[in-house]
């Protein structure tokens, strides 16, 4: 009898599942009919974009840039997209990262042509459009439920993405996709909420298209676009760009006794203290953080990494810190950053469990306000808060007085090759940074920028003086 009832229950569950799938197909078909057939689209407008993880301080939204013009082409049949925008400066004074300040206009392009090797965090850009969502949901084992949000009823169609996160499309009473919501993996923020909202739909040659698009990652927007022109089902030619070069290996270069440069597009430093290693900067990604750890231990064998110094909290300078936490290292950072890291390090990493989440370890910190001195064995490291920084409120510089080696991040925008003449205009960061070094009585023989120069050279103070217009 139990087996009989179990069989009946299973059949009932199967019927519900089939009905749900059929309902989802009906909802998607109705939405497709209401929105019209869209094979390709080109839309243009203006608005603003915002750079994830580059805020001036931990409590600020992502920094804003004006999009004087914005054009995007999408070929839904080929899963291809090309975005071109012309950026201008928005924040005055310029505060935060994202390559501020923009002098004049700066063009930016993004090309995505999805193939089996395309990371989901890129491929999802097309799925996060109304037609892209409908196409993806139709190919998936989608389900549907009715949900009321802020007094408004939606048919919420959902399916599981390749990263195992649900992708949910909110379809309103007019059968239009009003919102898409999901999560993507982020090395620092973990399971990062990603949302697109579509407003003010307009009929364009039989196709409904939103004239206002807002996207968010985390709690803040990354795009706010007012669409002024739409061309549907027109020929587009989107050609894949060359694949990026694989990440450079984390090799080491001896700068002085017990001081090693860990090379790469983002540089780190390893310093041999009496009983342990001090590393400066855990940048970019978990993989880069692990590579820096391995390089430091290879250069200075037999010692643990007790401290990792963080120059500032921007996403590209702190996304490699988590493997150091798993290693048991203490994060040394300016005081404003500790509450920020304590919060983000609690964010779940279920989409891509990393070494820190698997280790179960909690981050340990040592903080300071203006100056901190670390000594051990033959080495001394001075940490100085960069007061008045326009890039990040918690920025620090790292000074090895004995070796006269200075490590800095983003305060000196080092050109790809050694400068021979002062640029016009002079970057506003550079004179101020040079004045700070004079105030602190720091006279470096070597400047190690975290963002490595294109030719891999060791940078000198004379280069900073040239760029600041103070060369003799």
Plain-language structure description:
By secondary structure, the protein is α+β, with helices and mostly antiparallel strands. The protein has 2 domains: 27-232, Clam (outer membrane lipoprotein receptor (LolB), chain A), CATH 2.50.20; 252-467, Metallo-beta-lactamase, Chain A. 23% of the residues lie in helices and 36% in strands. It has 10 helices and 23 strands. The strands form 3 sheets. It has an 11-stranded antiparallel sheet, covered by helices on one side. Strands 12-13-14-15-16-17-18 form a 7-stranded mixed sheet. Helix 1 runs antiparallel to helix 3. The longest helix has 34 residues, at 2-35. The protein is globular, with a radius of gyration of 26 Å.
List the helices and strands and how they pair.
Elements: H1 2-35, E1 40-50, E2 64-75, E3 80-89, E4 106-113, H2 120-127, H3 130-139, E5 143-149, E6 152-160, E7 166-171, E8 177-186, E9 190-204, E10 207-217, E11 220-232, E12 252-256, E13 259-262, E14 268-272, E15 277-280, H4 286-299, E16 305-309, H5 315-318, H6 322-327, E17 330-334, H7 337-344, H8 355-359, E18 364-368, E19 371-376, E20 379-385, E21 396-400, E22 405-408, H9 429-439, E23 446-449, H10 461-467
Parallel strand pairs: 15-16, 16-17, 17-18, 22-23
Antiparallel strand pairs: 1-2, 1-11, 2-3, 3-4, 5-6, 6-7, 7-8, 8-9, 9-10, 10-11, 12-13, 13-14, 14-15, 19-20, 20-21, 21-22
Task: Briefly say what this structure is.
By secondary structure, the protein is of the alpha+beta class. It is 23% helix and 36% strand. It has 10 helices and 23 strands.
> Based on CA inertia axes, which overall geometry fits?
globular
In terms of structural class, how would the helical and strand content be classed? alpha+beta
Rg over CA atoms:
26 Å
The CATH topology of the largest domain is what?
Metallo-beta-lactamase, Chain A
What amount of the residues lies in strands?
35-45%
CATH architecture of the largest domain: 4-Layer Sandwich
